[in-house]
Specification:
With 109 residues, the protein is α/β, with parallel strands linked by helices. It has one domain: Glutaredoxin, CATH 3.40.30. It is built from 4 helices and 5 strands. Strands 1-3-2-4-5 form a 5-stranded mixed sheet. The relative contact order is 0.24. One of its GO terms (molecular function) is protein-disulfide reductase activity. Keywords: Disulfide bond, Electron transport, Redox-active center, Transport.
Length: 109
C-alpha cells in the first residue's frame, strides 16, 4: 500500500504541484502493469517518509497522464526525475537501489 506521503501528480496539477514547488520534487513515472515500478514502490514510499519536509515525493501514472511523460522524454518506466525550481536536476531509469535514489536527492538538497 502506498504511503499517504506520496502525492499523485497528473497532467492537470503538475505545473502547480511540481514546477512551482518551493522544495525539490521527486517524481516517479510508473504504470500499474509495470513490474519494476512495483519493485521500487516501497523505496519511493520510504523516501517520502524519510525526507518529509525536505522534498516532495509523487507519482505520475503514465497511462492516466500521458502529457508529462512526453514532455520530459520518458521512454521507459520506472523513470524517476528530480525537479528543483521548475527544472530537471537529474533522473534515473529502471528499478534502481535506494542508494542511487538518495544520491539523486542529495544533488538538490
Amino acid at each position: 500500500m502506498a504511503s499517504e506521503k506520496v502525492l499523485t501528480f497528473t497532467d492537470d496539477n503538475f505545473e502547480a504541484a511540481v514546477l512551482q514547488s518551493e522544495i525539490p520534487v521527486l517524481v516517479d513515472f510508473w504504470a500499474t502493469w509495470c513490474a519494476p515500478c512495483k519493485a521500487i514502490a516501497p523505496l519511493i514510499d520510504g523516501i517520502a517518509e524519510e525526507y518529509e519536509g525536505k522534498i516532495k515525493v509523487g507519482k505520475v501514472n503514465v497511462d492516466e497522464s500521458p502529457g508529462m511523460p512526453g514532455k520530459y522524454g520518458v521512454r521507459g518506466i520506472p523513470t524517476v526525475i528530480l525537479i528543483k525550481d521548475g527544472k530537471v536536476v537529474d533522473q534515473v531509469v529502471g528499478a534502481v537501489p535506494k542508494a542511487q535514489l538518495e544520491a539523486l536527492i542529495k544533488k538538490a538538497l
